[in-house]
Structure formats: structure tokens, C-alpha cells
Amino acid sequence: MGTDYSGLGRALIFFGVIFAGCGMVLLLAPRVPWLGRLPGDIFIQRPGFTFYFPLASCLLASLLLSLLFWILGRWR
User: pTM of the full predicted structure?
Assistant: First the structure.
């Protein structure tokens, strides 16, 4: 008769780990001097206008996350 909350518990733990990981990245990102300043990052500054798009940094982050999830998928 009781309700099974094990699925909800697992989801909360999963999202908690994701949030903790994002928090660690935000804390450690300022200490990585080259992050956001890679050669492929686009930065245009004109009077009254600034445009910044970290293209190379996004590609590097995507590659690292893809590799991480591939390794985790193989390990499982």
C-alpha cells in the first residue's frame, strides 16, 4: 500500500550531483587562465559595442563532456 519513492530519490541524487559539479566548475573556472581566451574565441570591441563568443572554449568543453559521458557509458 505504501508509495515507492526510490525513483524520485535517485533523480534527486542525480540532479544534486549535477548541481554540485556545476558549482565546482564555476568555482574553479576563474583559476584557469586560458579558459575563454583560446585562439578560436571571437572577441569584437568597438565604441559602444562589445561582442564575445567563446567558440573554441565551447568546442573544447563539448569534446571533454562527450569523452566523459562516453567513458561513463562504457563503464556502466
Answer: 0.59
